Amino acid sequence: MKSDLFAAENMAQPSPTPGMTLQNPKSVKYTVNGDMLARQGSMVAFRGNLRFERKGQGIGGMLKRAVTGEGLALMSVTGQGEAWFAHQAEHCFIIDFEPGDSLTVNGRNVLCFDSTLSYEIKMLKGGGMTGGGLFNSLFTGTGKLAVVCDGNPIIIPVTAQNPVYVDTDAVVGWSAQLETGLHRSQSVGSMIRGGSGEAIQLMLRGDGFVIVRPSEVTETAAAH
Q1: Which residues are CB-contacts of 118 (< 8 A; sequence separation ≥ 6)?
Q2: Angle at 187 between CA 174 and CA 194, to 5 degrees
Q3: What CA–CA distance (Å, rounded) separates 224 from 193?
Q4: Tens digit of pLDDT for each residue in 73-96?
Q5: Which of 44-48, 100-104, 145-149, 220-224 has the least mean pLDDT?
Q6: Which partner from 35, 138, 151, 161 sits 20 to 30 angstroms from 114, CA to CA?
Q7: Coil, helix or strand for 132?
Q8: What is the pLDDT of residues 32-68, one digit of tens each?
Q9: Tell me, what's the pLDDT at 129?
Q10: What is the three-class DSSP state of 9?
């Protein structure tokens, strides 16, 4: 049988070492030898002796989703084998954490990560202004984190002199050391997404960067 479908870049190959790699721009392959963590429902295939278990539904086992405040539950994957992860054909990126690194990530953008990374749920001060609250997860430690982005991400440098204002539906993550706050904008709200005259942006100030996706459509809205 012949087809471009069977091109070499589409074929899954055995990994020589355990851990996380990109299978292609829209999926991540994880060779498991022990344990790792992933968002529930993100596993699209696996082979080998693997066990998938829901994490606890308490705050320690949840990543909160921005704006709606809905929980994004995690699952643990243990054993020996290979698993593939993806989410709605979004672009996948692997971030390698070295000692001292830290990153705040929107829960909806988390795909999977090494169990050696630590994560802590944070609620943005004043997050109630957005309705359900603005929850994010602070990742620290050493290891790899795979994130997804609807489209090609925009990386914007942030300085103390030039704060950046980001739509709360579009933010993917930011340098953990940045000062954050919520900013109401009467004038901007009337010009974006057919707003009624007021909008709320995430304000970031300090020395670092913010990751933005080129889409303001929430998953809840897209499903209808």
Answers
A1: 139, 140, 141
A2: 85
A3: 17
A4: 789 999 999 999 999 999 999 999
A5: 220-224
A6: 151
A7: coil
A8: 999 999 999 999 999 999 999 987 544 444 444 433 3
A9: 45
A10: helix
Q: Rounded to an integer, what distance in angstroms lies between the CA atom of residue 197 and that of residue 199?
A: 7
Mean pLDDT, to the nearest integer, of 118-144?
72
pTM of this prediction exceeds 0.90: no
The three-state secondary structure class of 221 is helix
Nearest C-alpha neighbor of 200 from the set 222, 184, 186: 184
| Residues whose CB is less than 8 angstroms from the CB of residue 62 and which lie 6 or more positions away in sequence, other chains included | 55, 71, 72, 73, 74, 107, 121
Looking at residue 47, its amino acid is: R
* Closest-CA residue to 79 (of 36, 127, 132): 36
Q: What DSSP character marks residue 60?
A: G
Q: Which residues contact 96 (CB under 8 A, 6 or more apart)?
A: 143, 144
Phi (first) and psi of residue 11, to 5 degrees: -85, 135
pLDDT for the residue numbered 59: 46
Q: What is the per-residue pLDDT for 192?
A: 55
Residue 169 vs residues 16, 39, 71: alpha-carbon distances, Å? 39, 19, 16
Q: In the chain, what are the helix, strand and coil shares in percent, each to the nearest 5?
A: 10, 55, 35
166 CB burial (10 A radius; 0-12, 13-18, 19+): buried
Place of tokens 């968002």: 39
